[in-house]
Amino acid sequence: MTGSRGSWLACGSAAAPYFESHAGPGGGGTLYKEVESVAIARAWDAVTTDAIVGTDQINVCFWKRVLAVYNGFKPPGSAERTHDQVRKKFGKITKALKRFISIYENQMRTAESGRSEADIKALSMQLFNTEGFPKFSYWEEFLVLRDSQKFRAICEEQSAPGAKRTRLGVSGNYSSSSGSRPFDLNDDVMEEPPSSLS
Length: 198
Fold this sequence. Notes:
Layout: H1 5-9, H2 34-49, H3 59-73, H4 83-109, H5 117-130, H6 139-145, H7 149-159, E1 165-167, E2 173-176, E3 183-184
Antiparallel strand pairs: 1-2, 2-3
């Protein structure tokens, strides 16, 4: 890739080509090789860490940028992909990594003294594979994305337990999806009434 970063990230520019279709024989797409899958993870990370671009853009434009960067990272001879195919593949990567990261980080927190990172990796993969998921095959993608703050935010956002709060307005009022009343974060805490048992 040559030129400035902005030139290959410009949505809809000649530097960001995308292909409408590349179905294989029988209408199916071409399977991804591991290096292509890693290139997608690298491309997503590069686009989301660009201070000018980030993730605050329309969906199609974002994925066209990811595709343009992917085209620079993919190995020679790789199949041509559309931005929609890259988006779907990244969705599969994300689904598997969300699950794996949860298992891996739990194993890191609870690891016995003397257990190596290789032991934790092997145990995490074993636990991933035993709960109805196919074999975990995204280790290299994990290494690319595990330190990405934006990727971690996606994983935490989609797996956060409990009710979500919705901001109602600029006043700072929030409501809860559990049906409780709106509240203001700046309200003073009321003192609890004294117990009648004294």
